[in-house]
Amino acid sequence: MNQQGSAGDFTFxxxxxxxxxxxxxxxxxxxxLAERGYFSEHARVxxxxxxKQTPDEALAGVDAFLxxxxxxxxxxxxxxxxxxxxxxxxTLGAADAKAKMDECLKGLPEPHVHYAALPSSRFADLLSCxxxxxxxxxLRLVLEKPLGFNAAESAAIEDAxxxxxxxxxxxxxxxxxxxxxxxxxxxLRLGNRIFEPLLTREHVASVQITVxxxxxxxxxxxxxxHAGAIRDMVxxxxxxxxxxxxxxxxxxxEANSLRDEKLKVLKSLKVPQITGTPEIVVGQYGxxxxxxxxxxxxxxxxGVNPNSTTETFVAFRTEVQTWRWAGVxxxxxxxxxxxxxxxxxxxxxxxxxxxxxxxxxxxWTGNQLIIHLQPADKLELRLLAKTxxxxxxxxxxxxxxxxxxxxxxPVRDAYERLISxxxxxxxxxxxxxxxxxxxxxxxxxxxxxxxxxxxxxxxxTSGTYGPSSATAxxxxxxxxxxxxxx
Length: 486
Description:
- This protein has helices spanning 20-35, 55-69, 72-75, 97-105, 123-127, 151-162, 180-191, 221-246, 255-268, 403-407, 414-424, 433-453, 468-476; strands spanning 11-15, 44-49, 85-89, 112-116, 139-143, 170-172, 204-212, 280-290, 293-295, 313-319, 329-335, 342-349, 358-359, 368-374, 378-386, 393-402, 458-462.
- The protein is α/β, with parallel strands linked by helices.
- The chain has 2 domains: 11-172, Rossmann fold (3-Layer(aba) Sandwich); 177-409 and 433-476, 2-Layer Sandwich (Dihydrodipicolinate Reductase, domain 2).
- Helix 8 crosses helix 9 (255-268).
- The radius of gyration is 23 Å and the shape is globular.
- The chain starts with 10 loop residues before the first strand and ends in a 10-residue tail after the last helix.
């Protein structure tokens, strides 16, 4: 049954349809949307890739990929795409590429949505195949991160995009913004009187953002050696999550109102101190054990330079230098080969002025608001309650909002939510050019500072939470990493 209503007529062109991202995330999301009735009978999906395949062959290839990955849920609805699917064998950048694309799209319904599931080095080739049509009802462009590998490369890409399209036609994806928990963080803040007044420097002791991965570099060595943890995770996902936590309430939920407030936060960020008492730690995983299995060090991974100085871990302290947040430490951490996979935002509230109760275990944990992003989307509020018995002791208890258990419907995948917004022309969950440029400016300052200071990654054992110096850095801010919250 159609629960959401059709997004109307459109043509969705997936460039890089044979790539891992397309097979793992984008195509299953499209298939689920088709199953749920988002596609009108005239809608079309075009798989654009170098290989010449029939629609049946293309779907069989995706099915085999997902089967090998153990993703049965992703396989389930692939057949729903078949009535809408066409394939386009094309080599972007070739002399005949534009003619082939024009011929394929001739007569297909608008808007034509071009999704670039491609390396950013290929964006220019795609743009050369697009007409300059400054109308979001006719043409939309979706760009995956990273938009280049520094501020200068990003600006060059953006200039090429702006030469052909208006800002209203460009959807820059950060899939973390499609997660239910991130969207509910906005609802929690802006829809509930009890929380918004507490999210200030007077009540918040610290904010932590962690994205931990138990996997290593896997098959991404070619990309990761060039990127590292800071470009891969901090520049995009983590700075966006920070901005949503720290932004002022917008005047409306209109896209530019939200983006304006996020931009103010991004512009106010303090660059971590590199020398003296460092506010940043970078690391690189060595051999160790993850989930009981031995794993090799990063330098021995296939495709990695044996003398590599690429960071696979980073933890740093920054501040949002605004009236609301001045002085509150924001601690960000991400790394590979950590004990478990999870992503969360932990807002640590200040202690009561005069503790009257004895904490269980002798350690006072205080109140926390935790936004869990993976492996499950949920919100958790940690309070202190008196333990049964005569002694006046407090123990943490949790109030949980698990979205699946609350609504009794499956939580939508982030890509599914974002693609449905693209089809409906909604820009609120996508980045604006000035946001991306400001994030790159911050990231470049960090990377250039590390390079000038000659800082190289410290080794850490796989299966741990990074170098011990990251713990010491957090302690200097009066905080402990919340490693037991998942």
